Structures are given as C-alpha cells and as structure tokens.
Amino acid sequence: MALDQLIGAGMLFVATAVFVYYTTWTFVLPFVDEPHPLYAFFPAREWAINIPVMLLLLAITVVGTFIGTVMINSAEKERQKQAAKKTQ
Q1: How far is CA 26 from its chain centroid?
Q2: 55 C-beta neighbours (distance < 10 Å), count
Q3: pLDDT in tens, 44-66
Q4: For 24, which DSSP code?
Q5: 45 by DSSP, 3-state: which?
Q6: CA-CA distance, 3 to 44, in Å (whole number)?
Q7: How far apart are CA 28 and CA 39, in angstroms?
C-alpha cells in the first residue's frame, strides 16, 4: 500500500469516526436517560452546537485571510508592472 493510500485511508477512518461520534451525540443521546453510562463519553449538549460554529468561523476567517492576501499580492504585482511600463 502506497503512502498516499495509507494517508487517505487514515483520513477516511478519522472522518467516519467523527461522523459516528457526532451523530450519536446529537441524534441518539437526547433519547437516552441522564443516568445512563453513555453520557460519560460525551460533553454537554451545548457543545454540539458551539464546536461546529467555532470551526465554521475559523474556516471562514482562514479562507477570507487567504483571499485577502492573494488580492493584495495581485494588486502589488499589477502596480509593479504599471511602474515598469512607465519607466520604459
């Protein structure tokens, strides 16, 4: 098995585990009684909303920063091209 296939299989395993955990946390746990031992494996239900919202805000910030950086660099290169044309 090649390294890229191994990494892909690992990523698929992690994504599946996170999906099963979150699905159990949000869809199954509300129907289980409070004293059940299953509650020991999950944080409070408020975090089922807070964590995805924080991850979404982080992703939007990273993407926005990347796009802003690319736009600034593109504008700077365009200014340098215009300045080079004027000096010729």
Answers
A1: 19
A2: 10
A3: 989 999 999 999 999 999 999 99
A4: I
A5: coil
A6: 38
A7: 11
